[in-house]
Amino acid sequence: MIVVTRIADIHDALNGVCLTIGNFDGVHMGHAKLLQRVCDRAAAASLVSVALTFDPHPRQVLLGSAAPPAITSTEQKLECIEAQGIQVAVVLPFTREVAAREPEDFVREALVEGLSLRHLVIGYDYAFGKGRRGNFDLLTALGQNLGFTVERLDPVIINGAVVSSTRIRDMVQAGKVWDARPLLGRFHQVRGLVAHGQKRGRKLGFPTANLSFKDELVPLTGVYAVWVEFGGVIRPGVANIGKNPTFGEFEMSVEAHVLDFKGKIYGEPIRVHFVQRIRSEKKFSGPDELAARIREDIGLARMILAAPDARP
């Protein structure tokens, strides 16, 4: 997949595109339906399949610190978009000036003149531009004048409710990572680099990889059965999210113990896929009680990860 941050960088290579536009936070099953439809329509009409998104997420610009955390980093979002078969991803910088732009101008200049838009696929509730005026009705009218067609897809319903980024975010923040999987089409993950920690896990007999993480959406504190991915290999593990109350710490951390692994991976990029929450965080009387509970957690994690539907 080709990734560009300026339409000018791809303009000359395009003779016609089938496009979808959105924030695609989480690239969930609703987004997957949009992206797959774009690929199918593009292939049928000999067009280039394109997904246009923004970085940072518009709410981060408009709401600042009040914005909810993103489900996926831009890096992971692009990986998921590529996995759906999209040929070109356009990642436009989002600013307050972009937010104030009239949708008619954006469609004419960016989509039609810039990307040679022929067919547009949008979600059931998508709208953009100043006052969110760029909705299905306006886009359809613009298409009739500017030479493109518009298609609006119905929402995807899973377990009796519409799949949405908000619904997934609420699940993850409540620790319901197992329930979020059908909506995401995968387990929620946190990625980062392995950093040096206090090495308490090693002293207890359960060395952990301490994540210096960059993803925004971290599940509810507690202990989880996880898959730990590094070096091109996915291994079973147990992760703790919390502040290590047994040792009186106050900063949030994500630590993963990789089962049956004895190597050192400091500085390595790592991805932790959260499968199921085992228990809440707890303050133990001391290292011995904590070690006993960790052994129990590991036994439970092995049982959970052995299930056929727990594979990453």
Automatic annotation (TrEMBL):
Keyword annotations: ATP-binding, FAD, Flavoprotein, FMN, Kinase, Multifunctional enzyme, Nucleotide-binding, Nucleotidyltransferase, Transferase
Keyword Transcription regulation: no
A Gene Ontology BP annotation from the UniProt entry: riboflavin biosynthetic process
Residue intervals of the Riboflavin kinase domain: 183-306
GO molecular function ontology, one term from the record: ATP binding
Reactions it catalyzes: FMN + ATP + H(+) = FAD + diphosphate; riboflavin + ATP = FMN + ADP + H(+)
Source domain of life: Bacteria
Pathway entry: Cofactor biosynthesis; FMN biosynthesis; FMN from riboflavin (ATP route): step 1/1; Cofactor biosynthesis; FAD biosynthesis; FAD from FMN: step 1/1
Pfam families cross-referenced by the UniProt entry: FAD_syn (PF06574), Flavokinase (PF01687)
UniProt key word Repressor: no
EC top class named in words: transferase
InterPro entries, alphabetized: FAD_synthase, Riboflavin_kinase, Riboflavin_kinase_bac, Riboflavin_kinase_bac/euk, Riboflavin_kinase_dom_sf, Rossmann-like_a/b/a_fold
Family of the protein in this entry: Belongs to the ribF family.
Physiological role: Catalyzes the phosphorylation of riboflavin to FMN followed by the adenylation of FMN to FAD.
Protein name in the entry: Riboflavin biosynthesis protein
UniProt lineage: Bacteria, Pseudomonadati, Thermodesulfobacteriota, Desulfovibrionia, Desulfovibrionales
